Each structure stands twice: as C-alpha cells, then as structure tokens.
Amino acid sequence: MKVMKFGGTSVGSADRMKEVASLVSDGDNNIVVLSAMSGTTNNLVEISNYLYKKNHDGANRIINQLEKKYYEEIDLLYKNSKIKEEATEVVKSRFDFIKSLVKDEFSEVEEKEILAQGELMSTAMVNLYLIEQGKDSVLIPALEFMKTNSDGEPDISYIKENIKKYLDIHKDSKILITQGYICRNVNDEIDNLQRGGSDYTASLIGAAVNADEIQIWTDIDGMHNNDPRYVENTKSIAELSFDEAAELAYFGAKILHPTSVLPAKVANVPVRVLNTMEPKAPGTTISGKDSKNRITAVAAKDGITAIRIHSGRMLMAYGFLRKVFEIFENHKTPIDMITTSEVGVSVTIDKLKHLDEIVDELKTFGSVEVDSDLVIICIVGDLVRENKGYANRIFDALKDIPLRMISYGGSDHNISVLVSSENKKEALRALSAKLF
Ligand SMILES: Nc1ncnc2c1ncn2[C@@H]1O[C@H](COP(=O)(O)OP(=O)(O)O)[C@@H](O)[C@H]1O
Ligand SMILES: N[C@@H](CC(=O)OP(=O)(O)O)C(=O)O
C-alpha cells in the first residue's frame, strides 16, 4: 500500500485534479492525502482575520470570490450532470457553513473550523471525479482518525487504531481519499497540524499503516540542492537520508514540512518527492540509507532573531546555561542555534511572541542585545569528523558575507551560519557556485 500526498498546486485547478485522478488510478492500493486547492487556505486565513476584526464586508468579499472560483472549476471538472450537481451541493454547503460564521462572536474554535473547509472541498471534488471516471474510490474522513493529544502532538495510537477501522471497512476499495492538514484536538474540536501540515498527515498515515512508500507529489521534481526560488540551476537530489531531509525541511526547504520526516523515519517507510507535472521523473527518495562524503544541499530559514547575553557570571560557572535555557522553556520558545564563549552566549529564536518577557528576565544575568531580521543558512551533507575540508569550502564561498553566528558539530549533517536577511540571496548563490 502507498500513501500519495498531493499539495495545493497539484489540486489547484480542474485540470490538475484530473491529473491527480490519473496518477492515483495506477491499480495499487493507495491512500491519497490531499491539500486544499492552492490559495484557498490563505483566503480562509484572510476571512478569519476579517472576522476577528468584525469586518463582515471584507470577509464576505473574499468568501464570494472564492465560492465563484470553486463553481468555475466544478464546471470544468465534471461531464455527468448528476455528479456535477452533487459536487456543487457539497461546495455550497461548505460555503453556507463559512457564511454562518460571519458574525461578531468569533474565536479560535470558529477559525479552525473555517481553515478546515479547503481540504474538505478538494477531497470531495477529486473523489467525485474519480467516481465519474468509474474508479473504485471512497472518502475516509480525517476528522474521525487524525487526532492530537493534550500537548498538541499527534496521538499516534489513536490514529493507528482509528484509521485501521476505515481500512477494514473499505478493504475492497483501491483508492481511499482523505484530507491532509486537518484533525481533531484533545477536546474533540476541529484543529489542524499547522500550515503546510498535509505532508505531516501523509507521513503519520504512512507510519500508522506501515505503508510501502509515502509519496509527496508537488510542483517540482524532488528536493533540490538549493532554494530554486532564489538560485538558478539548482538540481534535484536523487537520494537523501532521513537525517539530511529532516535538517533541510527544518531549515527552510519549503517542499517538505519540518515535522513530516520523523514519523516516516521511525517507521522506516521511504519517502519519495515527485512532480505532478512530470510524473516519470525520478524525484528524490528519502530513506534510512546514509549518503557518504558529500555536501548535499543548502536551505535558508527566514525570520530569525538573535539574542546575545553577555555576563561575567558565566566565567568558570556551572549551571549558567541551564538558567538561561529555563527562561526560554518557561516561555515555550524553542531555540535554534547556540554559540558560546567564556563570557557570553548567543541563541536564535523564530517565535517572537514572548521576546520582551524573555529579554527582561535575561537582563538579570548581564547585558542583552537583540538582533532581528536574520536568516539561518544551513548546509547539509555527510560532514562527519573524518571528512576534512568541508568547512573550508563553505567559508571560502561565504568570504565576502558578514557572518553573525556559526554552528558546527551539533550533528554529523549540518553546518549553519547566521546572516542578515539582506545577504540571504547572495549567500545562497555563493554557496551553490562553490559547492555544487
Ligand atoms: N530545496 C528545495 N527543493 C525543491 N523545492 C523547494 C526547495 N526549497 C523551496 N522549494 C519550493 O517549494 C515549492 C513546493 O512547496 P509547496 O509550494 O509547499 O508545494 P505543495 O503546494 O505541493 O505542498 C517548490 O515549488 C519550490 O519553489
Ligand atoms: N492547505 C494547508 C495544508 C498544506 O499542507 O498545504 P500545501 O500542501 O499546499 O503546502 C496549507 O495551505 O497550509
């Protein structure tokens, strides 16, 4: 059994949905995870933002534009008038539901309900198209088996147990379609796995059913060795280890959601990144196989803030770092990079909600400097200690770029540097030119 995930661009229009339908009808048993049509989730976020501000006109304007777009795609998608009517009915009821939330009382619960509508519509549309084509396809509702626990983390045993019920009920169906991204939380309310979370859904399902393979279908032929949005002539990487893929996803390679590698790694299910526009291209295979002796790829994570604590108390002291980290822990703020010297420590964060409180508390140790608008550039590969010369090549490539922090040795797979966001493009391009 395969899990096949198609992102927003891959289900972004009637034509793209037809392509998806043909790819999932390959005769195998497939669980198909779909995102919302591209742009939809952003529109749903906009609608929610208007509703928080009690701007009903703003919300209605976006709702009407979006609804119109769905009817246009439905018109192009189906030939059979009964199926077209059924799809129109589904979409209309979803928009009626969104419209019913256009009122003054608006909270996070309603916001999450609105954000779930995109995936509910795209899956119903593709499923009906497959049925029109005479395919053996059924919808299985993610809201009945994807669940998070009291820590907001996926409830793995619940997911395993409940998806199995649907597999048993539909054991004779070749194609099972479900929603990416959406889930229920510990209070049984509709929730989601964070933006871009459909990859995570696919990986969790792949692990839960012990799939032969998890396929992430997108609009590019695999994970590239640098960010194609900023660098020309990037190349698809044929094979990646789980560890390399996790580092790249975490440090900004947008093609994979940062959380999506771990469930596949734990269950040892290979992940393939494939291109809907070029289905025969080999793409990238991510597996437990380690790559040897190479610098594999570069990625960049934006929106980073660095905090430097300068303190005489660190000199010869023990327990100092624990006290510093405790402040971040108390404010539920993860740290990305860390560098230390005898009298100071620098850390980076990208969640800024509690920055002011954190800085105030850190000031009890000494002077605190905050630098914002930074980018972590992460260079990933097989960088084990015996391999010499990698750092030299990397710093040679970056010799004209001011480096704010450097992190090396945290794992065998990653060298990270912190640069100002205005130097991001130049740094990515310089690294591609020297390394690949
Ligand atoms: N290292 C990389 N390799 C491939 N694509 C990348 C990389 N870094 C960023 N991207 C961007 O990620 C995009 C695909 O991600 P996304 O838009 O989230 O896809 P989907 O809609 O299929 O979920 C690509 O079009 C590409 O521009
Ligand atoms: N629709 C959701 C979930 C998702 O994963 O989308 P995509 O696969 O298009 O990145 C979002 O936009 O966040």
From TrEMBL:
It catalyses: L-aspartate + ATP = 4-phospho-L-aspartate + ADP. The keyword ATP-binding applies. One of its GO terms (molecular function) is ATP binding. Residues 377-434 form the Aspartokinase ACT domain. ATP binds at residues 5-8, 218-219, 229. Pathway: Amino-acid biosynthesis; L-lysine biosynthesis via DAP pathway; (S)-tetrahydrodipicolinate from L-aspartate: step 1/4; Amino-acid biosynthesis; L-threonine biosynthesis; L-threonine from L-aspartate: step 1/5; Amino-acid biosynthesis; L-methionine biosynthesis via de novo pathway; L-homoserine from L-aspartate: step 1/3. This is Aspartokinase.
